Amino acid sequence: MTTPRVTLIGVRIQEGAGRLGCDMGPSAYRAAGLAETLSGLGLEIVDAGDLVPRPHVARAHPNGALRHLGAVAAWTEVLAEAAHAASGTGIPIFLGGDHSLSAGTLSGLGRRAAEEGRPLFVLWLDAHADFHTLDSSTSGNLHGVPLAYATGLAGFDGYLPALAAPVDPAHVCLMGTRSLDPAERIAVREAGVLVHDMRAIDESGVAAPLRAFLRRVAAAGGRLHVSLDVDFLDPGIAPAVGTTVPGGATFREAHLIMEMLHDSGLVGSLDLVELNPFLDERGRTAHLMVDLAASLMGRRVLDRPTQSY
Prior knowledge:
CATH topology: Arginase, Chain A
Strand content: 15-25%
Number of domains: 1
Largest sheet: 8 strands, parallel
Number of helices: 10
Low-confidence stretches: none
Mean pLDDT: 95
Helix content: 25-40%
Oligomer: single chain
CATH class: Alpha Beta
CATH superfamily: Ureohydrolase domain
Distance between the termini: 38 Å
CATH architecture: 3-Layer(aba) Sandwich
Number of strands: 8
């Protein structure tokens, strides 16, 4: 039996966020023992270090609110290449970094899935939809655009790298959503993205909607990418994020999702994003995110060690 290979790829991008600190995320995951934890599950772990984008030039856009467009474009290009390469040899885990990194990971993974003749499905665990276009963004923070870009919405040509294979919006599932701007709400509905917001989770739990989505992925023979934002979690258990939204997923809901994803055997790649260690409490959030990654990769609830902070 071949030992599963997991490649850790650090992504020190913070240009897409509204405050500094996400560039320290990869170091925090390493300090919290991500590699050692996953290795303890019998996985082959390769730490590929941190990506470095090529030099970039500033890019002007009619929307004057946009910030760091040239830098995010450069990160998107190098991430797309890395995601495409690493997804051909095992399971890449991208250690962010703000959520604009998913513009690159989804671009590269979409290309990989197309080459395999398989559809790419995306489970987006996030308080936000990140479905703004460059024209609709009012904050100017580009961590709010990656899913719109990756699904081929208009307005990105000439500003972010061209997509080899856009993700079908019908193959995207938003879970835990609880903060959408009006423009995003319209765009998500028109695109046909599946949304399970916190109201739906409060009413019916996480298991039934996730199980239904996983059945769709399996039936289509799809490749599944999971993008986990710290703000998917309730800030009471995960304070280290600059975009806190009350009412997020609980500890048990989050672990159940990860355990179900592992049981499905469908996950081919993972983003861990928006961890800002500057806002953390003695590594509390970093350790929780490492625990969640371990659950996704096979650790059972009875095997979880007791931690003190």
